[in-house]
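Need the bound structure for 3-methyl-2-oxobutanoic acid, inputs here:
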Amino acid sequence: MGAKNVYLCASLENEPNFSIMYLSGSIPKITTHVLQEMKLKGEKIAMLTAYDYSMAKILDESGIDVILVGDSASNVMAGHKTTLPITLNEMIYHASSVMRAVTRSLVVVDMPFGTYQGNSKEALLSAIRIMKESGANAVKMEGGEEIRESIDRILSAGIPILGHLGLTPQSINKFGTYVVRATEEREADKLRRDAKILEESGCFGIVLEKIPSSLATEVTLSSRIPTIGIGAGGGVDGQVLVLHDMLGINQQFSPRFLRRYNNLYDEIRGSVGNYIGDVKSGSFPSEREQY
Ligand code: KIV
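Answer from helper R.:
Posting the output first, comments after.
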């Protein structure tokens, strides 16, 4: 194993709450406490989604701070129209695959629709299954006041929670559309109150999705915990994007907030086309590519 991958736990005497583990070469293992310190220092948090071992390994080795095993796996991996159909077992499968690849990043797993909204006891059991069976570091839940009981119960079991406000895709049937949220004062006020509830409950951060940047900045400045935005402007403490969108694998989704860093759809099509051509022409395999 390369030295880069060896963890040295900070001396427990010197680090009484042992919130930080160090990679040799003093690269910190990212914990929820590290994210808190990053906010205090004004260092931005970089988060991306991953749902499988191979992609998670690339992200971890690239130095991403947080990997989100998002329930966007429902769309990206399984081809569903919404995030609603994905199950707890499926999320645990994705999270376990990611965990086998990751050494440095903090891994957060979405609690899927229907596993935490109605009944706080069931919410706790769902969160425990995710943590126990995947080995992930934290869970993410959509909503504020309406899921407070579930949040309190899960936090009291020592499971860190990342909140999620604004456009919450699990509520798409209530919203009816994926347009920008909280543009009107009543909804903006509820979001401000919900952000306070999440902070006071003990969540370690809040994802703010598709809301006006002025509101996201205001919530960020008034909150002690980090905010991570997606379509929420630059005044937040960090950014998250769906990996397949930012790599240009998925070309059907082009919201204004999405920056594409690659065009892998075209790259992959080109490579697959070349392979098909080589097979059909008989130029693959060559003499050197056989035994
Ligand atoms: O599921 C997901 O990918 C998410 C991000 C868009 C924040 O929740």
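Comments: The first strand starts at residue 7 and ends at 9. Residues 49, 68, 70-72, 110, 207, 209, 230, 240, 242 surround 3-methyl-2-oxobutanoic acid (CB under 6 Å).
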